[in-house]
C-alpha cells in the first residue's frame, strides 16, 4: 500500500488541531484543500478516518489508531530533518511562549545575547496567559509558565520562585491612611478579576488572621495596566515583584505589609520530551535560567 506522506501529515495535523479550520490555519491551506486531502487518503487506505456522522469533530477507531502511530513516526522524521538542518548550519525556528509580562519584561529583553551566539536559530515569541494547549499541539516549542502542567509528553525544568508584592504610591498610602491590612477597606484594589482570585496568594497568606475588605475592585486585564493604575494612585495593586523593581527602588511605589509571608508561585520551563536534548533547546534553557530579574 502506497500512501502520500504529505496527505498523512495533513491528517496528523488535522487530528491534533481537532478541526478543519485549525488544520487549514496551521498548514496555510484552505479548508477545502484539507478536506480533499483527507478524503483522498481515506480512498487510498480503504477506510474512513473521520467520523462524519456527528456535528462534533471525531476520529474513527481506525483514525485514532493511525493518529497514535503517526505521532512517533512523523516526530522522528521531523527530528531527523532538524538534526540535518543543524548540521548544515541551516536556520532552526523556535516559538517561545510566556505570560505577557514575563515575556516582555524578561525574555524578550534578555534574548539578544542568545541570538548572537546562535545565529542560525530564529526565535518567535507568543505572549499569552494560556500556553499548555498550543504547546501540546506543537504550535509552541517551549514555554515559561507559572501554572503547573503535568503531562506525560512534557519535561518540566524549574526556573524560579515568583515573589509578589502589594503596591501603592506614597501619596495613596498617606491619603487612605494605610497602616494595617484592615485599612484596605478604605481602598480600591486593582485586580485581574472582580472576585479577587488574582489576589489569592495574599488573601490565603492571611489565613483569617486579619480583616480583609476593600472599598471597590477595579478590574484591569494586564500586570502592566495594574502597575500604571497604581502609579496613577488609582488604588492598591498586587503584582510580581520583578515587574516593579525600578518603581520600588525610585520610591514611585512602596511595598505594603512586608511582614506578611505572601505565598509565591513556581515558574517553570516546559517542552516536549522529544525536544529536550535537541539543538538549540539545551542552550536556550540554559540561557533562560541565566537571566536576571532586574
Could you please describe the fold and organization of this structure?
The model has no long low-confidence stretch (mean pLDDT 89). The chain has 3 domains: 5-85, Orthogonal Bundle (Arc Repressor Mutant, subunit A); 91-161 and 266-290, Periplasmic binding protein-like II (D-Maltodextrin-Binding Protein, domain 2), CATH 3.40.190; 164-263, Periplasmic binding protein-like II (D-Maltodextrin-Binding Protein, domain 2), CATH 3.40.190.10. It has a 5-stranded mixed β-sheet. Strands 8-5-9 form a 3-stranded antiparallel β-sheet. A two-stranded parallel sheet has the order 6-7. The termini are far apart. It has helices at residues 5-17, 20-27, 31-45, 61-87, 100-110, 112-117, 132-136, 170-175, 200-206, 223-231, 245-250, 281-290; strands at 92-98, 121-127, 142-145, 154-162, 164-168, 188-191, 216-219, 237-240, 254-256, 265-272. The chain is an alpha/beta fold and 294 residues long. Helix 1 packs across helix 3 and helix 2 (20-27) crosses helix 3. The protein is elongated and about 80 Å long.
Short description:
The chain is an alpha/beta fold. It has twelve helices and ten strands.
Write the layout of secondary structure elements.
Layout lengths: L4 H13 L2 H8 L3 H15 L15 H27 L4 E7 L1 H11 L1 H6 L3 E7 L4 H5 L5 E4 L8 E9 L1 E5 L1 H6 L12 E4 L8 H7 L9 E4 L3 H9 L5 E4 L4 H6 L3 E3 L8 E8 L8 H10 L4
Parallel strand pairs: 1-2, 1-3, 6-7
Antiparallel strand pairs: 3-10, 4-10, 5-8, 5-9
Helix pairs in contact: 1-2, 1-3, 1-4, 2-3
Helix segment count? 12
How much of the sequence lies in strands comes to: 15-25%
Overall geometry: elongated
Supply the CATH architecture of the largest domain: 3-Layer(aba) Sandwich
Q: What's the number of extended β-strand segments?
A: 10
Q: Considering the protein shown, what is the CATH homologous superfamily of the largest domain? A: Periplasmic binding protein-like II
Q: What is the CATH third-level topology name of the largest domain?
A: D-Maltodextrin-Binding Protein, domain 2
In the residues, how many domains can be counted?
3
Placed side by side, the strands forming the largest sheet appear as 2-1-3-10-4
Separation of the first and last Cα atoms = 59 Å
Please report the first level of CATH classification, the CATH class of the largest domain.
Answer: Alpha Beta
Specify the structural class.
Answer: alpha/beta
Proportion of residues in helical segments:
40-55%
Give the overall pLDDT as a whole number: 89
Oligomer class = single chain
Q: Give the topology string: H per helix, E per strand.
A: HHHHEHHEHEEEHEHEHEHEEH
Overall radius of gyration: 24 Å
Describe the biggest sheet? 5 strands, mixed
Ranges with pLDDT <50 over ≥5 residues? Answer: none
